[in-house]
Predict the structure of SpoU rRNA methylase.
Amino acid sequence: MKVTPFGLTTAEIRDELAPLRSDFSIAICRAKNPFNIGAIIRTAHSFLAREIILIGSEPYYERAAMGMQKYENIVEHPDEDSFLSAIEGRHLIGVERDHAKQTLWEASFPSGLVFLLGSENDGIPPALLAACHDVIAIPMYGINHSYPVAIAAGMVMCEWARRNDPRGGG
């Protein structure tokens, strides 16, 4: 039997974390590898993302999330239209090298933004790319074409924290 940290229930821990949440969300569209989605959930917990949005019906590997899914606000949308309707009015930033307008280092991060990552094979679908307010690339120096999606998610969350976290990220 696992002992709940700090002698609190899961609900009490979630309540304690709520006011500490960061002012961004991370969305993953149809990631094909369930381990990657679990790893993104675990990393998003480390940055206390406002929410983790899963677009599509692909599962995630709970062991990769290392139990952090129980403390997170995970929102699932069956398709792109449902997702876009739910985030209407929020700034959507796609993370995609091939369609980027600027780099991670140049992009502005307005409050309440949603970072959007696509699948490992297909990237961000065209309809979602068209809905993005900005599309950014993470600079690369090798010959490979892309970062693993879980690594890319961690990089954008880390850059958000470096710039915006009042707890001392910068």
In short: The chain has one domain: 21-164. The longest strand covers residues 24-29. The chain is about 30% helix and 20% strand.
